[in-house]
Amino acid sequence: MSQFTASETVTHDLDSSLLRHGMRRRPGPAEDSHPGLTDSPREERETRAGGEKPGEEPGEEPGEEGDMRKICRRSAPFRWMRKWFLWLIVLYISIPVIVKVFPSIQAQLVFLNFVRVPYFIDLKRPVDQGLNHTHNFYLEPEPGSRVGVWHTVPSRLWREAQDADASWFESSLTSAQSVILYLHGNSGTRGGDHRVQLYKVLSSLGFHVIALDYRGWGDSDGSPSESGMTTDALLVYDWIKVRHKSPLFVWGHSLGTGVATNLVRRLCDRGSPPDALILESPFTNIREEAKSHPFSMVYRFLPGFDWFFLDTISANNIYFSSDENVNHISCPLLILHAEDDAVVPFHLGMKLYTLASRSKSLSGHKVQFVPFAASLSYKHKFIYRSPELPHILSHFLEISLPRTPDP
Question: Which domains does the chain possess?
Answer without folding.
Answer: 126-399 (3.40.50.1820)
